[in-house]
Structure formats: structure tokens, C-alpha cells
């Protein structure tokens, strides 16, 4: 009996050791498929992806210590990672994202960022990774469309697909990502309008959609997003007027709408907003006068209204602003005296150039 107990104990120890020294076979197979579909030769990151224990010293891979399931893949081509710092160069990776990655059904973070050469589509099956909180594929050459069912990722907090070659429309299902905090789709080939119901994303603090081919108007309802601090819709084909609701947003600090086809007039409530620090409305078709609504709490690090159809005089209340770092009113139809005093005393001629009949320092004397 004693010999049998010893044999059983020895067997259990062997099994236990085997379990500890390996990750789940399905996770291991999925990672091997990911490795096989990508090529990175400059830094040799995938040289660490060997053996049966993908939870131990596999670069960029992290596991849950209790379940030993893979929960994070974090591979960045430009970062402060010691491997990149030691090499003194940014990384380059080619290939595509293997659909087998979707077998990592405990994944919470997927970062394959700034590798410049990853191509192919975003696997549609990623929408089945119900625990996914971070999806960051910025800085590659990914094509295709954003998965139509992206809204199934109820746990998603960060979606960053910027600087790729993704086309199609922003999926309507995206409005179901109730917990999304950061959305970055800049510099792609996205078309169509901002989805109806976009304001349902009440947790969003940053919406970066610049450098696409988006059309339509800015939804009035965006003004009802209470945490939105940074809105960038620049360099698209957006038309219509600027909703007054944007000027009523309490935490909005950066608004970039430059390089569109926006018309109408400047909302007074936008220019008098106490919290807005960066406002770029340049290169549109905005007309009318500049509202004379600046005040002692106006604090603009940058105020750019250039290349529009603004007319009339420069409002004198600009002199009462607490701070204006960069001001550009050039290429409009403004006329009259440039106000004196701060901030005008430190402005260059280029800030007022190519208007109809402006005069005074730093332009010619009236």
C-alpha cells in the first residue's frame, strides 16, 4: 500500500509540474499561429516565443497567474521597451494578424502598434473576445473595414486603429460600446457619416477622427457627451454649421474642425466657453462676424480662424482675454483697426495677412 501511495504522489507531482510549466494548449497553438503569420527580424522579439510555457519570458505576452490563460499581447514598434531602447531604432513587422488569435478567449489587451508593415484585414472574429478592453493596432498598413459587430465588445475601453488604410463606414454597432473611453480612428480612409446615436457613448473623453473622408454634419447631440474633452474631426468632408451645443460642453478643451466644408456662422457660445483652450476652425467656409464675446476667463493656447469667410472687425473683447498664445485670423475678409494691447502686441503680421482692409500694428498704419 505504501508503495502505491508513493507512486500516486509521484504521478501527481509530475502532472502538477507539467501543468505549471506549460500554458493551455489552445493558447499555445494560437500564439504559434500569430508568430507564423508575422515577420520581425530586426529585433528578434519572436525568438523568445519558444518552448511550451507561453507565460514565461515570452516577449509581450502576459498570463493570468491563477488560470495561466493568456490575457495580454502587448507588442509596440515604438516605445520605451528595453529591447527597442537598446537597439536605438524603431521596429518593423510585416505579415498579417492570424485569425487564430481569436482562440485566446481570455484576452483583455491586444496591442500590435507602430510596426508600420502589418497588412491584411482586422479578423472579424475579434468581436467574440468578450473580455477585450484594449484594441490598439495604430501605425500599420491594415486594410479592409472595421468589423461590423465591433459593438459586441462590451468591455472595450480603448479602440485605436489610427494611421492605417482602413476603409468603409464607422459601424453603426459602435454606439453599443457603452464603456468606451478613447476612440482614435485618425488617418484612414473611412467614409460616410458619424453614426446616429453616437452621443450614447457617454464615457468617451477623446474622439479622434481626423484625416478621413467623413461626410454629413456634426450631430447636435455630441454636445450631450459629458466627459468629452478632445474632439478632432479635422481634414474630412464635413459640412453644415457648428452646433451651438459644442459651446455648452463643460469639459471640452480641444476642438479641431479645420479642413472641412463647414459653413454658417461662429456660435457665440463656442467662443465664450470658459474651458476651451485649443480651437481650430481654419480652412472652412465659415462666414459672418467674429462674435465680441471674449472675457477675462478666455484662455486659448491656440485660436485659429484662418482661411474662412469672416468679415467685419476684430472684436475688441479679445484684448480682455486672460491668455491667447497663438492667434491666426489670416485669409478672411476682416476690416478695420487691429486692437492694441495684449495679445496683439506680440502677434506677427502673418496672423492678420490677406484680409480686406485690416490696419494697425503689426500691419501698415491706419
Largest sheet, spatial ordering of strands: 2-3-5-7-8-10-12-14-15-16-18-20
Helicity level, as a percent range? 10-25%
Helix vs. strand class: alpha/beta
Q: Please, how many helices?
A: 4
Rg value: 27 Å
Low-confidence stretches: 1-19
Percentage of β-strand residues: 15-25%
Query: What distance separates the N and C termini?
Result: 111 Å
Mean pLDDT, rounded to whole units?
92
Order of helices and strands: HHEEEHEEEEEEEEEEEEHEEEEEEE
Shape: elongated
How many strands, which pairing sense, and closed or not: the largest β-sheet? 12 strands, mixed
Number of strands: 22
Please state the oligomeric state of the protein chains shown.
Answer: single chain
Write structural notes for this entry:
The protein contains four helices and 22 strands. By secondary structure, the chain is of the alpha/beta class.
Blueprint (SSEs and pairs):
Elements: H1 2-20, H2 25-37, E1 38-39, E2 61-63, E3 70-76, H3 82-87, E4 93-96, E5 109-113, E6 116-119, E7 134-136, E8 158-160, E9 167-169, E10 182-184, E11 189-192, E12 206-208, E13 213-214, E14 230-232, E15 254-256, H4 268-271, E16 278-280, E17 287-289, E18 299-304, E19 309-312, E20 323-328, E21 333-337, E22 357-359
Amino acid at each position: 500500500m505504501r508503495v502505491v501511495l508513493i507512486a500516486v504522489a509521484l504521478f501527481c507531482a509530475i502532472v502538477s509540474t507539467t501543468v505549471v510549466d506549460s500554458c493551455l494548449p489552445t493558447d499555445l497553438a494560437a500564439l504559434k499561429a500569430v508568430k507564423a503569420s508575422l515577420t520581425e527580424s530586426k529585433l528578434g522579439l519572436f525568438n523568445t516565443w519558444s518552448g511550451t510555457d507561453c507565460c514565461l519570458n515570452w516577449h509581450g505576452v502576459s498570463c493570468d497567474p491563477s488560470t495561466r490563460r493568456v490575457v495580454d499581447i502587448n507588442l509596440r514598434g515604438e516605445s520605451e521597451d528595453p529591447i527597442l531602447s537598446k537597439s536605438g531604432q524603431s521596429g518593423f513587422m510585416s505579415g498579417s494578424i492570424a485569425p487564430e488569435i481569436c482562440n485566446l478567449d481570455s484576452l483583455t489587451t491586444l496591442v500590435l502598434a507602430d510596426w508600420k508593415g502589418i497588412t491584411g484585414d482586422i479578423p472579424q472574429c475579434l468581436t467574440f473576445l468578450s473580455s477585450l478592453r484594449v484594441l490598439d493596432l495604430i501605425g500599420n498598413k491594415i486594410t479592409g473595414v472595421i468589423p461590423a459587430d465591433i459593438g459586441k465588445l462590451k468591455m472595450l475601453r480603448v479602440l485605436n486603429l489610427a494611421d492605417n488604410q482602413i476603409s468603409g463606414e464607422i459601424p453603426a454597432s459602435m454606439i453599443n460600446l457603452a464603456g468606451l473611453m478613447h476612440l482614435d480612428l485618425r488617418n484612414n480612409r473611412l467614409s460616410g457619416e458619424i453614426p446616429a446615436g453616437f452621443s450614447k457613448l457617454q464615457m468617451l473623453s477623446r474622439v479622434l477622427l481626423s484625416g478621413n473622408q467623413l461626410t454629413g454634419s456634426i450631430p447636435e447631440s455630441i454636445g450631450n457627451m459629458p466627459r468629452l474633452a478632445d474632439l478632432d474631426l479635422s481634414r474630412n468632408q464635413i459640412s453644415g454649421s457648428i452646433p451651438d451645443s459644442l459651446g455648452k460642453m463643460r469639459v471640452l478643451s480641444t476642438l479641431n474642425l479645420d479642413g472641412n466644408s463647414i459653413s454658417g456662422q461662429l456660435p457665440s457660445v463656442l467662443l465664450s466657453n470658459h474651458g476651451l483652450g485649443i480651437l481650430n476652425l481654419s480652412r472652412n467656409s465659415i462666414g459672418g462676424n467674429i462674435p465680441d464675446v471674449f472675457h477675462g476667463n478666455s484662455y486659448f493656447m491656440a485660436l485659429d480662424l484662418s482661411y474662412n469667410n469672416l468679415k467685419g472687425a476684430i472684436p475688441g473683447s479679445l484684448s480682455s482675454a486672460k491668455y491667447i498664445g497663438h492667434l491666426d485670423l489670416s485669409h478672411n475678409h476682416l476690416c478695420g483697426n487691429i486692437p492694441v494691447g495684449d495679445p496683439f502686441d506680440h502677434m506677427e503680421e502673418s496672423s492678420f495677412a490677406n484680409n480686406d482692409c485690416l490696419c494697425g500694428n503689426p500691419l501698415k498704419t491706419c
